[in-house]
Design brief:
Radius of gyration: 16 Å
Largest sheet: 5 strands, antiparallel
Organism: Larkinella rosea
Structural class: alpha+beta
Helix content: 25-40%
CATH class: Alpha Beta
InterPro entries: NucleaseA_inhib-like, NucleaseA_inhib-like_sf
Oligomer: single chain
Order of helices and strands: HEEEHEHHEEE
Pfam families: NuiA
Strand order of the largest sheet: 3-7-6-5-4
Protein name: Nuclease
Length: 137
């Protein structure tokens, strides 16, 4: 057995050190976990309750691919730093897909919006990734 096969699974949070999500303001990606008893799929109402979001705040569910698309493609003009970021997000995506099922992506806010990529872990807890995206155009 190779060392990679015998190593314990790396927690998602360990993959997030100094990892920033690109937008008009590069923001850190953080791991979140909630002990709640919601059955999938999550509704926008449940997200509002869980995160204490007021009714006037815009909330929508969007396809999970929207989260990964800007960070999974290597462009020809990328320098080493951008290529490393893409590789790290690829590793993160693979890990998230291994340990979190029933994934859903929620956008909370407009020009400055929180993205929550949430799903269920094998222990039944909801967990995932959170970041802020800024788009003023």
């Amino acid at each position: 057995m190779s060392p990679k096969e015998s190593a314990p699974e790396q927690p998602i949070a360990d993959l997030l050190t100094d990892l920033f999500y690109p937008s008009e303001s590069d923001e850190p990606v953080t791991y979140v976990e909630f002990t709640i008893d919601f059955q999938p799929p999550l509704t926008i109402g449940q997200i509002r309750d869980l995160l204490l979001i007021t009714p006037e705040t815009y909330v929508e569910e969007i396809p999970e691919a929207v989260f990964w698309e800007p960070v999974m493609t290597n462009e020809d003009w990328y320098e080493e730093e951008e290529k490393n970021r893409t590789a790290r997000f690829t590793e993160l995506k693979n890990r998230v897909e291994q340990v979190i099922s029933d994934r859903q992506l929620f956008r909370i806010g407009a020009d400055e919006a929180d993205l929550y990529l949430l799903g269920r872990k094998s222990d039944g807890n909801w967990a995932g990734l959170k970041t802020l995206v800024v788009s003023t155009t």
